[in-house]
Amino acid sequence: MAADTTTHLICAPDFDGVATVTALQYPVGTPIAGDARLLTLVFDNGSDQHVHAPEAGILNGYTVAAGDPVRAGELLALMDIEEAPTGWLFPPTATPAVADNDRAASPVDWLMVSVDAARLAARLGVDLSELAAPGRIDVADVEHFVREKLARPR
Questions:
Q1: Closest Cα to residue 124, out of 152, 143, 148, 101?
Q2: Cα–Cα distances in angstroms (integers) from residue 26 to residues 33, 84, 148, in the given order
Q3: Between 94 and 50, the higher pLDDT residue
Q4: Cα(150)–Cα(139) distance, rounded to whole angstroms?
Q5: pTM of structure
Q6: Is 44 within 8 Å of 69 (Cβ atoms)?
């Protein structure tokens, strides 16, 4: 894709027990429409459920094959999805208070994030507001947060 993309992790939905992957709908590298069926899971009771693409993008790869058993939340596929242009929000310059109860906006009220840290957080699906890093958040802060989160028992 020509524009900036983010790799989305597509995981199995919540369910009890084990399901079996029965069909992979597209070959890797295929452009996929939003909400297109990517694969099918069949449960022990014979019912099935389709896993759909979250948005339009390119199928980057499957992490399962037909016949594989999967549990809820397991990684099934990866898709490169074009990022919507959002622009950047910069803290406003301090302005004098309009009324006694108002106060000027200060940089302390803003979350400061390095561009590399923002890109890493976007790729990993990290909500930067959950980081307890004071001041500016950099790549090391995001990496530390992810390591801590992965180390927590479920």
A1: 143
A2: 11, 24, 35
A3: 50
A4: 17
A5: 0.56
A6: no
